[in-house]
Amino acid sequence: MTTPLLTSSTDRDWRRHGNCTASDVNMHPDDSDHRGEQAAKKVCAGCPVATQCLVESINLSDWHGIRAGLTGGERRNLDAQRTPRRCARCRDVFVPRVHNQIRCRPCARANDLRGRR
């Protein structure tokens, strides 16, 4: 059976094609459970709907468990690197280095310098 081309991450039918639906592996291992994390990542390897899973996870800011073969932290960093934002101070557009960065580098440096005085 071939998996149909899935064009929209909002179409919930894609989920039934995921490797995880037929697996007994815990897809939400504890952060300290390295073996569990690796087992869950193996389930995602070669999954036909990994792209839809990743898109949904980022769109919903779902950082729990393994999705599309990535941990929540890995997905959060991927999202932060790819999503340009406006600086909270100067309103210039910048690409954040970490998920919770709200200021561009010049404004962050200026804020740090002000705090040291």
From TrEMBL:
PROSITE patterns: 4FE4S_WBL
Top-rank taxon: Bacteria
Pfam families for this protein: Whib
Domain 4Fe-4S Wbl-type: from-to ranges: 19-77
Name the record gives this protein: Transcription factor WhiB
